[in-house]
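Progress narrative, work stream C.
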Amino acid sequence: MIRAFTKGPFTGKHITVILVLFFAVVIAVNVLMARLASSTFGGLVVENSYVASQKFNGWLDEARKEGALGWQVEASRAADGRVAVRLTGSPPQGVELSGDAWHPLGRMPDQPLRFARQKDGSFLSDRALPAGRWRLRLEAIDGKAKWRTERDIS
């Protein structure tokens, strides 16, 4: 007869309790992790992965062309909550800037942004963003040249 940390013999009841408790902990942890994962991820990466795979090389070519322009962006919040953007790296004077802000965890709806050029050459959005962390998708267009980027803003 086996004795293990009990005053009496180690019986089938003991192993049953141990197994039930073990699997209860495993199931509870899995449920908790699944709940946390599904509550923090919006779930959409691309609409159709096959179509995205067919367009991938084209996207790489566009990224190379955009990189060759040498443009850079600095984005910040103005005192009133609007987004202030400065393009550097010799973008032309006639460039138009547009974009949208999306909440990284998908908890708030996307905010479309239109930008107006300021006297100092920077751009200022037409609306203020709600407080919190946002991801900006910006697109600058000048005739044939198109440049896109993404930036975090708090």
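Work stream C, second folded protein:
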Amino acid sequence: MTKLDIVKLKTMFSALANEKRIKIIELCSQKERNVTEISKILNLNYSITVEYTSMLSKVNLISKIRKNDRTVTIRPLIRLNNNGEVIKI
């Protein structure tokens, strides 16, 4: 494993070290959501939600899709099953 691989893994684990960021993945696994929806459901400040989704996107756990009306839709790149196991989609 290279030093770069270790840094990537460390960044991914850091992204998953926060319960709210895991909840974002879980919410988006149910259906695509936008940042406003996520912030309301999780009772988070909009800017914090943008920061969290950016972090998750950076490590390829979600993708952000910008719509014409400037809405950013979040789509998960992984799913969590009922046992808490990660499934790559």
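The helical segments are 3-15, 19-30, 35-41, 46-58. No further action is required on this item.
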